[in-house]
Amino acid sequence: MRFRRRILNPLTELTIAGLLVVLVLVVDDWRFSLAVLLLLVLPAAATSGRAVHIAVAFGVLAGPMLMFLLLLHGLFYPEGERVLLDLGPAAVTAEGLLFALEMGTRVAAFTGLLLTAALSLEVSELLETLTHRGWNRKLVYVLGSALGLAPLVADRAAQITRAQQARGLVVTRSPLSKLRALVMVGRPLIAGLLTDAADRSRTLDARGFAGTGPRTSYRADTDTAAQRAVRWGLLAVVVVFTSWWYVGRHT
Amino acid sequence: MNSSLTLPSGTAAPSTRRILLIAGAVVIAATYLYLVLVQPAEIAGGAGTPAGLTTLLGFLGGGALLVAGILPGLNTQAVVLMPVGIALNISFGQLAGTLGLPIYLDALGTVLIGVLAGPAAGAATGVLSNAIWGLFNPFALPFAAGSAVIGLLAGLAARWGMFRRLYLVPVAGLLTGVVGGLLAAPVAAFMFGAAGTMGTNAIVAAFRAMGDTLLVAATKQGLTSDTIDKLIIFTVVALIVYALPRRTRNAFTFVRRHRVLLGASSGDSGSRDESAAERK
Fold it and tell me: In total, how many domains does chain B have?
């Protein structure tokens, strides 16, 4: 189960996923989207070592979306002319079903590509690559800090909710009661987070966060010159292909 | 208090940053105009049209340009606040689900940072929030430009003193929701075929049944859902900010300089005088 593919740098994986998303949007054909999904995303997710994690996330995010697409466009597509089934205000049309198929495969490929890349990467390795590549230090800090804070904030929110419930907070079905609960949980949560942030701000300033000099990283650079070349090369290929697809193909 | 005494306060040249900001705003506006004006042919045509690509690259790229222009100019205090806002967006988005609220609440952190640290920090928080959330939920990614505008408008509303008069807060939220809804509609329509949650889907289906094009239906749905969502978010943020200890909320340079909140100037209780708080 601990079999992780550790061939490429996270930045390279994200770049490849992003460029494939661009290709899926450019070609905009359900057969191409389906091919990307089955021939690239599926093997990549299966060998990532986090296949179950990716599958669950994909199901939770894309599942309802695909169902809604089918319902929405399968039943309500006023532009459709070939009516397969008339249901009064709703009508099943061939054009609507085709649109749902095209959107559905596109959405599935988009979700699959990005989720597979994001869920199989090591965040710390990504941040360290960005530092070595000279990305804005503030940006790298915001990325790393937000990813670290998110589970912490969720934890603290749950704790505060339980504490307020112990003090008599009861959430009824009325929206006003829910809104009150939101403020009762939000106020101590945000007050605590802001105090922490003020402390961090002073600590960072004392350590020269605002300085502009060059930085060193404790961790070694896992990025290679070859991967950098591959990233730029792939980007160039996608740009050339896209311009040919929209301009050159028709002339 | 925020500027370091020992290090030179070197940032990118202001002119470069201004060019990036203008470029970002132009890209986002041009993307929106292109999508809205060219839309009728696009959505019926289906395959072979660059609407989806334009939506993703235009809104995400415009957002990236905005961040590149804003980030070098922010002080440490604002930079440290941004991850807090992003984490709040994510956890309140989830909390709205667990409380069973029919709204998203996923811009609460963005609005909070806009109010406490200003429009620039708010806009950058919006973009980065969607970019980071996009790692776990790719559907958030193309909505980055809309989030930037929400953070920007929240900051501007705070700067123009709308948070000093509590009855203006819901109005500011409503207006922000209108702009946010308009910007989100083409993303929903061209990237995802207007599929969203159960509630938003029912609204889109109703407008489609009346014969609206997909973009018009998505826009009407956005205007309905986003205005209510932002109205509630602005109100909740105002309630929370006013309930914070005075020392905490007065610690923010933006809040003090622009007298964002009632009694935010000097800390004495006599500063509730409206005329004194009007203009310095």
Answer: 1
**Helices (H), strands (E): how many in chain B?**
13, 0
CA A129 – CA A221 distance, rounded (Å): 6
* Pair of tokens at residue A102: 């095209």
If contacts are CB pairs under 8 Å, which of residues 99-138 in chain B contact chain A? 99-101, 105, 108, 112, 116, 128-129, 132, 134-138
B 171-210 residues with CB below 8 A of A?
191-198, 201, 204-205, 208-209
Report A:71-100 residues touching B (Cβ under 8 A).
Answer: 71-73, 75-79, 89-90, 98-100
Q: Which residues of chain B have pLDDT under 70?
A: 1-12, 39-49, 97-102, 194-199, 264-280
pLDDT digits 0-9 by tens, A174-200: 778 888 888 888 889 999 999 888 888
Output the pLDDT for position B5. Answer: 53
Q: Does A64 touch chain B (CB under 8 A)?
A: yes
Residue B248 lies in a domain: yes
Query: Which stretches of chain A score pLDDT less than 50?
Result: 1-3
Cα–Cα distances in angstroms (integers) from residue A10 to residues A178, A214, A222, A224, B140, in the given order: 41, 23, 9, 12, 20
Q: How far is B37 from chain A (nearest CA, A)?
A: 18
State the pLDDT at residue B272. Answer: 40
Q: Do B90 and A153 touch (CB under 8 A)?
A: yes
Residue numbers of the domain that contains B150: 14-263+274-278
Distance CA B157, CA B261 (A): 11
Residue B205 forms part of a structural domain: yes
Position B256 in a domain: yes
Among candidates A24, A41, A33, A108, which has minimal Cα distance to B195? A108
Number of CB pairs, chain A paired with chain B, less than 8 A apart = 220
- Tell me what pLDDT residue B16 has: 87
**Which of B117-150 are b and which e, b meaning 16 or more Cβ less than 10 Å from the residue's Cβ?**
bbbbbbbbbbbbbbbbbbbbbbbbbbbbbbbbbb
* Contact call for residues B152 and B115 (beta carbons, < 8 A): no
Q: What is the pLDDT of residue B6?
A: 52
ipTM of the modeled complex: 0.84
**List of chain B residues whose C-beta atoms are within 8 Å of the C-beta of residue A147:** 132, 135
Cα A142-A136-A213 angle, rounded to 5 deg:
115
**Residue A85 β-bridge partners:** A92
Residues of B in contact with A197 (CB under 8 A): 80-81, 84
CB A136 within 8 A of CB B79: no
> Do residue B91 and residue A114 have CB atoms under 8 angstroms apart?
no
What is d(CA A18, CA A33) in angstroms, rounded to the nearest whole number? 14
Asked, for residue B5, whether it belongs to a domain, the answer is no
Structural domain boundaries in chain A: 10-126+223-250, 138-206
Q: Write out pLDDT tens, residues A127-145.
A: 888 888 888 888 999 999 9
Question: Bridge partners of A87?
Answer: A90
